[in-house]
Write a structure and sequence with these properties.
The complex is a heterodimer of chains A (188) and B (194). In chain A, 79% of the residues lie in helices and 0% in strands. Chain A is an all-alpha fold and 188 residues long. In chain A, helix 1 packs across helix 2, helix 2 crosses helix 3 and helix 6 packs antiparallel against helix 8. Chain B has nine helices and no strands. The chains are: A mainly alpha (188), B mainly alpha (194).
Chain lengths: 188, 194
């Protein structure tokens, strides 16, 4: 039974002469021993020969003409397609849509992430030390301003200005400006 | 002189012809068509079991060759290349046929499904005692699974070498040999009553 199975698997190799010497020896000896395998071999062999001698199906007389028509039709449709070539969203490949959507998402994400970071940066731009100096300068200015005799009549102020060559209020403003310039300089 | 030239052209190999066609020689294309039209039609007919469709499909094969002549590179035999195109087109057609069949049956009502399908057993009129009827053999070939069918047709009907069959089917030689053997045994079983 095992030999019959092996015999079956070797039939085509034997018919096509694609069999090793050892297998051929086995095949031939089994063929002589087993009558059912022998008849199977004969049957397969004759069937193979019959397949080879089947009537060949041939093309009709219009074959070449139809082929020429097909080629012409195809060529014309190609020409027509190239002439009617206008813009169409269908011409854009699918990956281009995907890529552009991805780019939009990346840009939008970048902008979104940048916005709150900028706001906090602005707040942190002035260092604490500088801020303190600004506040000090503001306080000094306020004190000096409060000390200025703003309630004096115009003549008295004009006189004092003439005496010192500059107004008292102007001095205070200049002092504040100087302080601010110093703070700016330190900031830089 | 012209006769001599023509005779010389006829002696060209397939590979030389396709090279000439790639260079723009339309005569070479016609020569290829004439060499392969019957061989391919016979192969496709045995595979899809419809002569009209087979002829149409072979025309499509040559149309593909015409359109993609530069796709052929001289690393493979031309015959293998053209058989592969035809086989692929035939496989696509069979797939479409299957889908069409499925759609047709799915659209039928339960009372319609009891149809008389083409009989598997052939009527006695078609049988000639003691002879292998070609129609019966063709029906038996058509019953084989696709991968067995293509292998046995290429080997026993077209008489191609195992190497060529391997290239056309795209399977190793062991697989091809096994398929051919199993196809022959099945066909023998199918035709045992004859």
């Amino acid at each position: 039974m095992k030999n019959c199975y092996k015999f079956k698997s070797l039939i085509s190799n034997y018919i096509d002469k694609e069999i090793s010497f050892r297998d051929r020896k086995f095949f031939e000896s089994h063929k002589n021993e087993c009558s059912s395998c022998q008849s199977l071999y004969t049957s397969v062999f004759s069937m193979k020969q019959r397949l080879g001698s089947l009537t060949s199906v041939e093309t009709s007389n219009q074959f070449m003409e139809s082929l020429r028509n097909k080629i012409l039709k195809d060529r014309n449709s190609r020409i027509l397609a190239s002439q009617n070539k206008g813009f169409s969203f269908r011409q854009i490949p699918a990956f281009a849509y995907g890529f552009s959507s991805l780019m939009i998402l990346v840009i939008a994400g970048f902008i979104y992430l940048q916005m709150p970071v900028n706001a906090t940066n602005q707040e942190q731009q002035i260092p604490i030390a500088a801020q303190e100096k600004i506040n000090n300068a503001k306080t000094t200015f306020q004190q000096q301003f409060d000390a200025t005799p703003a309630h004096l009549p115009e003549e008295t102020l004009a006189k004092a200005k003439a005496d010192s060559g500059k107004s008292v209020q102007g001095d205070n403003v200049r002092n504040f400006e100087n302080n601010m310039n110093k703070v700016d300089y330190q900031k830089k | 002189m012209i006769m001599e030239k023509k005779q010389k052209k006829v002696q060209l190999t397939d590979e030389e012809l396709i090279k000439r066609f790639q260079e723009g020689d339309l005569w070479a294309f016609e020569e290829i068509v004439n060499r392969y039209r019957n061989r391919l039609t016979n192969f496709v007919f045995r595979y899809i079991n419809d002569q009209r469709e087979a002829e149409d499909l072979v025309q499509d094969t040559f149309l593909k060759l015409y359109q993609n002549k530069h796709a052929y590179k001289e690393i493979a035999k031309f015959s293998t290349w053209i058989y592969t195109i035809a086989a692929n087109l035939a496989k696509t057609l069979l797939r479409k046929r299957k889908t069409r069949k499925l759609m047709f049956f799915s659209q039928l009502g339960p009372e319609d499904k009891d149809l008389d399908l083409p009989a598997d057993d052939i009527t006695s009129q078609q049988m000639v005692e003691g002879q292998f009827d070609e129609k019966i053999i063709q029906e038996a070939i058509a019953k084989l699974p696709e991968h067995f069918r293509i292998a046995i047709i290429l080997r026993d009907v077209q008489e191609l070498s195992y190497e060529e069959i391997c290239n056309i089917i795209g399977k190793p030689i062991g697989t091809v040999k096994s398929r051919i053997n199993r196809a022959r045994l099945r066909l023998q079983k199918e035709l045992a009553n004859l």
